[in-house]
Design brief:
about 250 residues, alpha+beta, five-stranded mixed β-sheet, two-stranded antiparallel ribbon, about 15% strand
Length: about 250
């Protein structure tokens, strides 16, 4: 009987690790009933339980398992639904990068921490050069493909360096990257890697190869910044300095 219980728990663990569903209700229910019947069968042999009692226990077990796993499945579905809603509220639907709402929340929280603690953070702002020309020449679907490709490239660089860094799509072709607990100099190799990765890439769309370049502005927040707008404007000005000076450039303020 102990072996039945061990086999049951092993089966549950196998189902958990080998199914894609968050809560595979039918698999759990079927295995639970199967091992429950097996357990009561050995109990019947060991304790000479009558057929009437045996089948009554099997019936009660089945009803209990249906309601128990059904309730757990409902809880999992609710959690999954809430997770999906939260993701939709904080992520850009086209690129899956964090959206402006998430950016605004995180930026305000980091601003508060810098003003009240010893925390540092740096922000990169960049946009795709001549993006309107890409849309006008190849169409908006091509523009969408470019945006998704840029996010994929940048996110790969981030994942290879520090997953705590966050990428946000804050406008049409405008993006921000927040480096929490990074001084300005510490971001340099990552910023340059992002810059190089994008500028040496292209996006293939309908037999067309679209070459990409970006302009960037970078700055570290200071305790002397009176408001978020002071800091944001400095990063924004650094970006536009790059754009005014021929694009495909990094400006550090």
């Amino acid at each position: 009987m102990g072996a039945v219980l061990l086999a049951f728990f092993y089966t549950l663990n196998y189902i958990k690790t080998h199914t894609e569903k968050v809560f595979p209700y039918l698999y759990y229910l079927g295995s639970s009933i199967f091992f429950g019947v097996l357990y009561w069968f050995f109990a019947k042999l060991k304790f000479s339980i009558s057929d009437q009692v045996f089948w009554k226990e099997i019936f009660d077990l089945t009803i209990l398992e249906i309601f128990t796993f059904g309730y757990i499945a409902t809880l999992f579905a609710d959690v999954e639904s809430r997770t999906a809603l939260f993701r939709d509220a904080t992520h850009d639907k086209l690129t899956s990068a964090y959206n402006y709402d998430a950016f605004d929340i995180d930026l305000r929280e980091l601003f508060r921490k810098v003003k009240t603690t010893d925390m540092k953070f740096t922000m990169l702002m960049f946009d795709i050069d001549h993006f309107k020309h890409i849309n006008d020449t190849y169409g908006h679907l091509a523009g969408d493909a470019v945006l998704k490709n840029v996010v994929k490239i940048v996110q790969t660089v981030i994942d290879n360096n520090d997953p705590k860094i966050k990428l946000y799509r804050t406008g049409g072709e405008e993006f921000n990257v927040i480096f929490p607990n990074y001084k300005l100099d510490d971001t340099k190799p990552i910023v340059e890697e992002i810059f190089s990765a994008i500028n040496h890439s292209d996006t293939k769309f309908d037999n067309n190869k679209i070459n990409l370049t970006v302009s960037m502005g970078v700055s570290q927040m200071s305790k002397d910044d009176i408001s978020i707008n002071d800091f944001y404007s400095r990063v924004d000005e650094a970006l536009y300095h790059s754009k005014r000076n021929g694009r495909q450039e990094i400006t550090v303020e």
